[in-house]
Amino acid sequence: MACTDRTNHMLQEKAKRRLEKTTDPLEKLRNVCLSRGANGIVGLGRQFRIIDDDGNKKLCFKEFQKGCRDFGADLTKEEIEEIFHMVDKDGSGTIDFEEFLQALRPAMSKSRQEIVNKAFMKLDKTKDGVIRVDDLKGVYNCKHHPKYINGEKTEDEIFVEFLKTFQPADNADDTVTKEEFFNYYNGVSASIDNDAYFDLMMRTAYNL
């Protein structure tokens, strides 16, 4: 259901090529994320959450700069400042990192957003905005998974493995929020030019 290795590789290569050409700081950071694969933007979002000690989902410039540095984004202080001031439209000295991540996501057409939302709603059986292992039962059939067939993993372990594909490898857990799901598919979408192909891929993957 997650993107294939081939699609992920295409996304990474396309982002690396764009990274070499772009001079726009926000576009540069976007492609740094996408060069790490479909879950690159999710990884940056999690980095910001770690820094957000009080949980108010706002970052001052020092916190924002630290998040970019810890993520390994090769940006100058001036470029980070330009991105920060671009997002801090009211000049308050803080940015809402949910709004920032929304600005960072590659543009996704309305039809693509609708099909991604449809997939999320199908998986989120409890309708609480988070996909957990229990949500996948009866929705994601793992009976034909090689690791289930050979007894290497239980059904629940395969569900956890599936959920982790939407998150950075070094900071994954067994839940996926709607934001993480969308961030992931924004990345996948950036590697697919054809709307009809993206729609078919989502419908096939989630039996929509």
Write a brief structural summary.
With 208 residues, the chain is mainly alpha-helical.
Structural write-up:
The chain is mostly helical. The protein has 2 domains: 1-104, Recoverin, domain 1; 110-206, Recoverin, domain 1, CATH 1.10.238. 61% of the residues lie in helices and 5% in strands. The chain contains 12 helices and 4 strands; from the N terminus they run αααβααβααβαααβαα. It has helices spanning 5-21, 25-34, 40-51, 61-71, 77-87, 97-104, 110-123, 133-136, 146-149, 155-164, 178-190, 195-206, and strands at residues 58-60, 94-96, 130-131, 176-177. The strands form 2 sheets. The protein has a two-stranded antiparallel sheet. Helix 7 (110-123) packs parallel to helix 12 (195-206). The protein is globular. The model has no long low-confidence stretch (mean pLDDT 83).
Q: How many domains? A: 2
Helix content: 55-70%
CATH topology of the largest domain: Recoverin, domain 1
What series of H and E elements makes up the topology? HHHEHHEHHEHHHEHH
Strand pairing plus helix content: what structural class? mainly alpha
Give the strand content.
under 5%
Pfam family, one: EF-hand_7
GO molecular function, one term: calcium ion binding
InterPro entries: Ca-bind (IPR051581), EF-hand-dom_pair (IPR011992), EF_Hand_1_Ca_BS (IPR018247), EF_hand_dom (IPR002048)
Protein name: Calcyphosin-like protein
